[in-house]
Design brief:
53% of the residues lie in helices and 8% in strands. With 85 residues, it is mainly alpha-helical. Strands 1-2 form a two-stranded antiparallel sheet.
Amino acid sequence: MPYVVLVAAAVTLDQWVKYLVETGLPFQEKVDLVPFLALYRTYNTGIAFSMFSSFGDTGLVVIAAFVVAFVLYLAARTPPGHVLT
């Protein structure tokens, strides 16, 4: 159950940051955070680095569904209390 709270907090934080970016960060303008890190607002139409962007929204949903199903399968097969070493 603590993992559900952690995941919910991460998703909430992610959506909040996305809202702040959408409402306050100009498109394609640099915002310096620290001397070695800046933010740019841009759009990615695929997965990481626009991979699979030609698949369209339906294709990306199918890929995401397979990934989620695989992770749930692994979680179900993992014995309780198992720790990665």
